[in-house]
Here is the input.
Amino acid sequence: MAEDKTSGVQDEAPRQNLASEASTPPDPIDANVKDHISRHLKLMYDTVAGQPIPDRFLELLNQLDGKLDDEDA
Amino acid sequence: MTADAALVDRELKQRMVESIPRLRAFALSLCGNSDRADDLVQECLTKALLNLRSFTSGTNLSAWLFTILRNTYYSEFRRHRREVPDSDGIHYATLVSQPTQDDHMNFLDFNKAMQELPPDQREALILVGAAGFSYEEAAEICNCAIGTVKSRVSRARSQLATRLGV
Here is the structure.
């Protein structure tokens, strides 16, 4: 075992994207599967999007707001 | 600046604030680490405010902000490389309120499968499948053709289905 001499360490960003886009399109997936994926996807996204806005962002906007007004004056 | 312009600016800023939660979710899906995601959102908001005049009113503010965030990520943040891809799964999982054990496992599996997608596919799937953008808007945000977005979304779904065994 361990025959693989790893000739050249692989970069962690392989060019698989180009290859996968050039190949034939995937088989259409079942509507139930699509639904299953959609629900998880939304749960994942909404979990973060449902969090209250951290103060740092509101402070930032107010700060920049003041600066912009100064420039405009 | 005129009173009208000030009013428009104020309204835009209000809408920017409303976009922040979704920008955070998108940023986390891009960089996989919540601290860095918030830095990315901060950078995005700063740029947006400084370039508010270049936003064409009447066009899609959300798409504009997502574009700025994405460009910032690819031009400045990505060189730091994605951290170990455990961060997302664990982070998301801790945020979910009291899932049943079964749901919790599914959720971890799903996050892991998402992490294993090529970045361009993951991004397309998030924009269309979670953030609610049309294919056209997603194409604009990713600076690619609509057909490319469609293809990426379809491949992403197909890969997820395979990896989750559903």
Remarks:
- The two ends of chain A are 74 Å apart (CA to CA).
- Residues 1-20 of chain A have pLDDT under 50 and may be disordered.
- Helices of chain A lie at 16-22, 31-49, 55-72.
- Chain A has three helices and no strands.
